[in-house]
Amino acid sequence: MRAGLGRLALAVAFSAGCAVPAACAGPAPAGTVSVIGNWSGAEENSFQEVLHEFERETGIHAIYHGSQSLNKELETDVRQGHPPDVAIVSSLGQLAGYAAAGVLKPFTLPGAETNRYGRQWLRWSQDVRPGDAAPDQWYAFVFKADLRSAIWYDPTALRALLGPQETAAMPATWDQLVALQNRIRAAHGIPWCVGMESTPNSGWPGTDWIADILLHQSGVEAYQDWTNGRLPWTSAVVRQAWTTWGSLVQGPGAVAGGTQGALLTNYAAAGNLMFAQPPGCYLDHKAAFVMANYRGGTPPAQPGADFDFFPSPDAGGGTGDVREVSADFATMFNATPQAEKLIQFLASDAAQRIWPGIATGSAFSADAELPPSVYSDDVKRRVAATLHSGTLCFNASDLMPASLSAAFNQAVLAYLSDPARLDALLAQLESLRQQAYSTQTGTFKCGRA
């Protein structure tokens, strides 16, 4: 484990001009601010551009640490008494626990009173507040938003396989999605790009898919009951979501490399098979951040021409405009002047434009006032519009207790390896649900954007 970042204190012997009033009111304090998040590779490079602008504006040095085991590492740091100054975390359930334990520090949030961030995005940020918080105190805000209910495809490859009509109108219902899958198979193509490997969190692409299916198959109320620990894993609703996913990805010719290959294939590498010659697969169910992986290939895939998306279709739940989404929440563990400056900067309109404005990036803002022109292409603009319309439901795994979320990941891997184990796996998850929610169930809700 890294050294305690929260205890770092270097003096910075330069100052800079200030273009973001919220971030730079008064003299810039010398020193550093430590930040932890889960971004690495291209995503880390994009976030570093945000931090570099913060350093230029304030003269404060930001030290970023990226961890693929973010939740466990942060929990350890908090327990040992030396958390980072600022953490950017996707698990809303984990953050609510930190707030209840009194380890998060409050801050003011510019624009909150005007719904600049979008109503439902603000509601989820409010869910992190402890019960005794003042109305103007915030303990988290959405720094980066993402769309989970998305199916990606290569228009050029699909058109070459099936004909021009296949990209004129993409599936709007589950039956149409299944029909498209069957036409791909009939044309000797492999429909689905599936990769479960994402150490140490392998399996999450499957949990995303199952959650998305449950939402669109059984509706918002069932989804809320499930994510808040009120719906048993052994219920018909939950089981049906698993078997519906299984009907897509199990069986000969359904998945590139077969189900056993999918267990070993990295989630990002799986989607890039769409751009092989000939294509290794044609459809990729993945969060919108995967756009950066597509753009990072050789040669880089181009939005619109080489990749596009359609929202996950209604599967009988009457959920045509309902989307599963996720977010990375900025929070403060140490109320230093430097940490407060960084929080205010990250929440500013100027900072919210930086990562979404990177052409090869794949970040989206919960700032409803951000103009579409910030995004570099039409595909990004459509994703951004989706994040500010319809009914939004938060990613299920990020609402569950950490132990249950981790077991969900492992159960996906076991089910993909051996579908006959499904009932036993659901029984195990149900036992964990009863333990995790023995005293209180969750209160997170879906809502209109």
From TrEMBL:
At the top level, the lineage of the source is Bacteria
Record keyword Signal present? yes
Query: Which Gene3D superfamilies does the entry mention?
Result: Periplasmic binding protein-like II (3.40.190.10)
Would the keyword Manganese turn up in this protein's UniProt record? Answer: no
**Which residue positions does the secretion signal occupy?**
1-25
Cross-referenced Pfam families: SBP_bac_1
Q: Provide the protein name.
A: ABC transporter substrate-binding protein
User: Which species expresses this protein natively?
Assistant: Gandjariella thermophila
